[in-house]
Amino acid sequence: MKLGSCTLAVTLLLMGHSGAGELLDVDPPAEATSMLSSASPVMRMETLLKSALAAHADTEVIVSRVELPPHTTLPEHWHPGEEFAYVIEGQVFLWLGEQSVSGHAGELLKVPYKQAHWAGTGDEGATLLIFRVHEAGEPERVAVE
């Protein structure tokens, strides 16, 4: 990953840039569901930073680089905090209960606090820079049963 991409993502995050991708229908669009597979290839995730916030002892920030292969579906889950995803390459589909979005390279998506969601990719896959600000000591993600 180039330092410039990381710097841009941090700058957009700190500026409060919503960058929300294209709004989709509540149900996954037909072209997205036809591209997603139930037998997803393995994603790669690298934690770049995990640190407590000095001003908030019960809160930490986690920064990860995530590579999602083409035709990947991540199961429904939630995080004990807020999640921000900067799309470095490709396209990701994100379903957040009543709202669905797609994010393309150069866009920033937000997952609200403890919001159950799932994500998937189409033909291109996606590389994301993920920023999570959440409750310290809690798991990074919790599966929805």
TrEMBL record:
The keyword Signal applies. Pfam families: Cupin_2. SUPFAM superfamilies: RmlC-like cupins. Residues 65-129 form the Cupin type-2 domain. It comes from the Bacteria. The keyword Signal applies. InterPro entries: Cupin_2, RmlC-like_jellyroll, RmlC_Cupin_sf. It comes from Ferrimonas gelatinilytica. Residues 1-20 form the signal peptide. This is Cupin type-2 domain-containing protein. Keywords: Signal. Gene3D superfamilies: Jelly Rolls.
